[in-house]
Amino acid sequence: MPRLSVWFVRASFIYLVLGLFFGALILMEKGFALYALIWNLLPFHMEFLLIGWLIQLAMGVAFWIIPRFSRGASRGPENLVWFSFAFLNAGILLTSTQLWFPSMLIIGRIAEVIAWILYIIGSWKRIKPHGVE
Asked: What is the pTM for the complete model shown?
């Protein structure tokens, strides 16, 4: 597995654990009404599980599985995908703070979209029919 895929997958597992933890706290609050401000964790819970875990895991596995080039750099311009990893994680963290800093929602979403565009550009040429160089 390429190092970049390892980073994507490990980061996704961290978001999975955190997202499930926040979800468990919210569920506990729903059942026992201990501390109402726990509901403020909902944006973290949703962002960490949907984008942090699910999307990031898919991106990491796809980077690993998409066919490699037979000549030159086997995975193409990896720098773009590294930037994609950085923008995606920055976007996740910025978006999750939307409750306290509403403008961070837009900035975080823009960072996530930039991440996805960089990922697509970095992977586009590797998507081809079997046997085509």
From this structure: 0.86
